[in-house]
Design brief:
Length: 426
């Protein structure tokens, strides 16, 4: 028997990507659900944000589709069912969603229809009317690999860099072999040429006294240390080492090789709890509470045995005071109009910026400046942004074909077994 699901508004307000969670089953949306999304989309709440994202998903599916072909359903994607809109329902005592379900069940007796709703009362009413009903338990979120390329291409076993790279590969993406990795860089002719990646794992080279703990981190260091790559975007969940690797690369190029004059750190100041009021002090003092990740990683990098140059000429002198003297913390609010020269600029929590804010920031770069954007589009705190409308998503897509930009998505957590497990299950 053909299986299908009729979704209530409450499902999309809870999980806007629910359209893609039901595998090969067809999805039916009554007109009442669209009215519900429209009513819920106003304001800055989580529900309003989810309503907007669900509407965007629907708009993407409807783009370029003739109204007459809607009766045949819209494809949701490879391996998924089709999406149907229900406009013909009979007026009655039941809520509009259940009236639509009754009509659909009566006109399609060969269909096994399930009404999916987060609203417990709606599920009770559906059961009383003889309809099958279930809750939508999925807490799955759209994450970085769902929307963006990861910057890596795995080669078939036993092959090497001489293998023709995938047709979708672009500059500064990586080819992964059995043991070796290569980065695709533009050659003299303009064609992409594979260049071996330096091994920064234990036994190989170190960067400010630390080694990469996995292959992905080694690839990230390769991008961070290349002066020909002016813009680096590193995505990934908490604990993948984005901030630590970036600071290590920045300190090496600022204090050891003098490639940059200083490290400039900034981030969007979006609270995830109740506001604590105005903060006293200078611009840098006001930003300090938002820079906990910076402080945590500086403790690791300034430890004589684990960082601070690992015994090189800066090893003994690299105290917290020295590191702070070459790191500046700045607010995004005062970036407009500035030109940043010879800076290693780090933008943390970049997923919380709008495309307009991202454009304002990136265009501040002057000669000799490198910008590194860190983030995780699965953890957006700005209420009116979604994974598809985040400035970080916008930036990665727009710069993917630029030969001086590099992007990488880290997936392996190295913070602790607790943090790694929490990232997987929560």
């Amino acid at each position: 028997m053909h299986q299908a699901c009729l979704l209530d508004t409450s499902v999309l307000l809870h999980d806007p990507a629910a359209l893609f969670r039901f595998e090969s089953r067809d999805i039916y949306l009554p007109l009442a659900v669209l009215h519900g999304l429209d009513a819920a989309r106003h304001g800055n709440s989580e529900e309003a944000r989810n309503a907007l994202q669900a509407a965007r998903f629907l708009d993407e599916r409807l783009a370029g589709v003739a109204p007459r072909s809607l009766a045949d359903g819209l494809p949701l994607g490879e391996g998924l069912g089709r999406l149907y809109f229900l406009t013909d329902t009979e007026a009655g005592q039941a809520p509009p969603v259940l009236a639509a379900a009754q009509t659909l069940a009566r006109t399609h007796p060969d269909m096994q229809l399930t009404v999916v709703a987060r609203d417990i009362n709606l599920r009770i009413q559906a059961s009383v009317l003889g309809l099958e009903a279930s809750d939508h338990e999925s807490e799955a979120r759209l994450d970085d690999p769902d929307l963006l390329p990861d910057g890596m291409h795995t080669l078939p076993p036993g092959t090497g860099a001489a293998t023709e790279p995938p047709a979708t590969a672009t500059a500064n993406e990586f080819l992964l072999g059995d043991e070796q990795a290569w980065r695709l860089v533009p050659g003299a002719s303009g064609a992409l040429e594979p260049t071996p990646v330096v091994d920064y794992r234990p036994g190989g080279e170190s960067v400010w006294g630390i080694h990469a703990r996995n292959r992905q981190q080694a690839l990230a260091l390769d991008l961070l240390l290349d002066p020909e790559v002016d813009l680096v975007t590193l995505l990934g969940p908490a604990g993948t080492g984005k901030t630590l690797l970036t600071l290590a690369a920045g300190l090496t190029q600022t204090l050891e090789t003098d490639r940059y004059d200083e490290i400039l750190m900034t981030r969007a100041t979006v609270a995830i709890g109740e506001e604590i009021g105005y903060l006293p002090g200078t611009e840098e003092e006001k930003m300090s509470p938002w820079m906990g990740a910076l402080m945590d990683n500086l403790e690791v990098l300034s430890a004589p045995s684990r960082g601070a140059g690992g015994g090189n000429r800066w090893g003994q002198a690299a105290t917290q005071d020295l590191l702070h003297s070459r790191i500046r913390i700045r607010s995004l609010n005062f970036m407009r109009g500035r030109t940043l020269l010879n800076r290693f600029m780090v933008l943390d929590e970049a997923q919380n910026l709008t495309p307009q804010q991202m454009r304002t920031l990136i265009t501040r770069a002057g000669p000799g400046t490198k910008i590194v954007c860190l983030g995780n589009i699965g953890q957006i705190d700005t209420p009116w942004l979604t994974p598809t409308t985040s400035g970080l998503t916008y930036l990665v897509r727009r710069f993917r074909d630029w030969p001086h930009g590099g992007h990488l998505t880290l997936t392996r957590g190295e913070r602790s077994r607790l943090a790694a497990y929490a990232s997987d299950v929560l």
